[in-house]
Amino acid sequence: MLHNRMTKNLTSTDEKPLKEKTSEDFAKYFQTTYQPPSLKDARRRRRKDIDIHYDFDIRTDMQQVGVGKRFYIRTYGCQMNEHDTEVMAGIFEGMGYEATTDVNDADVILLNTCAIRENAENKVFGEIGHLKPLKLEKPDLLIGVCGCMSQEESVVNRILQKHPFIDMIFGTHNIHRLPDILREAIFGKEMVIEVWSKEGDIIENLPKVRKGQIKAWVNIMYGCDKFCTYCIVPYTRGKERSRRPEDIIEEVRHLARNGYKEVTLLGQNVNAYGKDFEDSSYGLGDLMEELSKIDIPRFRFMTSHPRDFDDRLIDVLAKGGNLMEHIHLPVQSGSSEILKIMGRKYSREHYMTLVAKMEERIPNVTFTTDIIVGFPNETEEQFEETLSIVREVEYDAAYTYIYSPREGTPAAKMEDNVPMEVKRERLQRLNQLVNELSLKKNKVFEGQVVDVLVEGESKKNPDVLSGYTRKSKLVNFRGPKSLVGKIVPVYITGAKTWTLDGDLVTESKR
């Protein structure tokens, strides 16, 4: 990948200031220097390009630059983006900045973006528009767009042409470069663009500011090599590259020493962990088994790809203990024909065989999933196959989406021939079924006592506590605030579609 950085000194031989350039200037620049997503080039990735760095440091002249100043980061999208935000917050604090929850108080604002769906991009551009008056009011305010959207040529072009007040654009592989990017934005007084940097690196000692001290996310790998035809992630996140087991284990041990109760292992395709190791056959099952020996009550992982879910991992999960029996297993479609067009590399039959195997070997296993409706060429019969697989598996919950083409992906070149009114009608039918099943599965818990990891006050009622069960069910109950961060028994009194209500089981009630 190219490492593009646009500053005053790199805009071309034309000395016209960057923010005065026209759309024709930008088009000329991109024709010569910018590399859009390329399936052909991306599939030529070489695993040997992966380097691991343990030498991250903030340059001396940037270590106090933020003293007396504040930063604000708005995060869109997945848990990986949330975790990236934790890293950027750690870097900001290393430069002396303090966090704020009010954009009006911020000296630096970052929008950490998601590119997986068109709706997510529209929200970001809406927010950029809302920030313009604030930028006019505070000219020294620095605004940056980072994350997955920044890796898309069309997005960068649109920002350059329509939102030239943006100060920084940088990609998912450039987070560790934040101090240098910020330095150029502060002292160079020009827009800084740094995207498509070398994607094969793993930076190990990045600081983090985690949200709370109860649950933590731990990246175990980055990128994806599956190249589903609808998905932009292999281009925005790069090739699959796994962290070394010893680095992950040490990070988790550190979390255990600091009292964390739950760790979720993250990866775009977490089941592919270790497949890029050339010196061993160490995989996710091996890692989970080692982590299960650490004194943390709960371990989870996401997101899984059915193609890479192997018997070794199933055998380890079957042991239970602090390995949770809730599996998020995206199916995307119940039709083998649509799955083939999607490039998912498994059939309906393969998926159902995997589900049956886990149901047989993992006690009390439950599933959640992702589903796309209205993919190009999806017929009513093929959509009915999706409904039928939902009925067969009986998912506890499903994240459902209308297909939207992402520029640069193979599916974007397909004719989007399912009318929007049909897509919406199918989504409505699917959601109705998912809701019915979710309520059915929740009602099973009525009259049972479940262990709940208490996370804090309910969002709707500060007098009510809320937390999650082993199966990732949200439970609301009344109890003292001193229970936050603890795992407590709760008697379930009622079930709703997405939540459970209960009473705290005290010693006197046992």
From TrEMBL:
It catalyses: N(6)-dimethylallyladenosine(37) in tRNA + (sulfur carrier)-SH + AH2 + 2 S-adenosyl-L-methionine = 2-methylsulfanyl-N(6)-dimethylallyladenosine(37) in tRNA + (sulfur carrier)-H + 5'-deoxyadenosine + L-methionine + A + S-adenosyl-L-homocysteine + 2 H(+). GO terms for cellular component: cytosol. It comes from the Bacteria. Binds 2 [4Fe-4S] clusters. One cluster is coordinated with 3 cysteines and an exchangeable S-adenosyl-L-methionine. [4Fe-4S] cluster 1 binds at residues 78, 114, 148. Residues 69-187 form the MTTase N-terminal domain. InterPro entries: Elp3/MiaA/NifB-like_rSAM (IPR006638), Methylthiotransferase (IPR005839), Methylthiotransferase_CS (IPR020612), Methylthiotransferase_N (IPR013848), Methylthiotransferase_N_sf (IPR038135), MiaB_methiolase (IPR006463), rSAM (IPR007197), rSAM_horseshoe (IPR023404). Keywords: 4Fe-4S, Cytoplasm, Iron, Iron-sulfur, Metal-binding, S-adenosyl-L-methionine, Transferase, tRNA processing. Residues 443-506 form the TRAM domain. It is an enzyme of class 2 (transferase). Residues 1-22 are annotated as: Disordered. Residues 13-22 have a biased composition (Basic and acidic residues). [4Fe-4S] cluster 2 binds at residues 224, 228, 231. Residues 210-440 form the Radical SAM core domain. GO terms for molecular function: 4 iron, 4 sulfur cluster binding; metal ion binding; tRNA-2-methylthio-N(6)-dimethylallyladenosine(37) synthase activity. The keyword Metal-binding applies. Its EC number is 2.8.4.3. Its cofactor is [4Fe-4S] cluster. Monomer. Catalyzes the methylthiolation of N6-(dimethylallyl)adenosine (i(6)A), leading to the formation of 2-methylthio-N6-(dimethylallyl)adenosine (ms(2)i(6)A) at position 37 in tRNAs that read codons beginning with uridine. This is tRNA-2-methylthio-N(6)-dimethylallyladenosine synthase. It comes from Aureibacillus halotolerans.
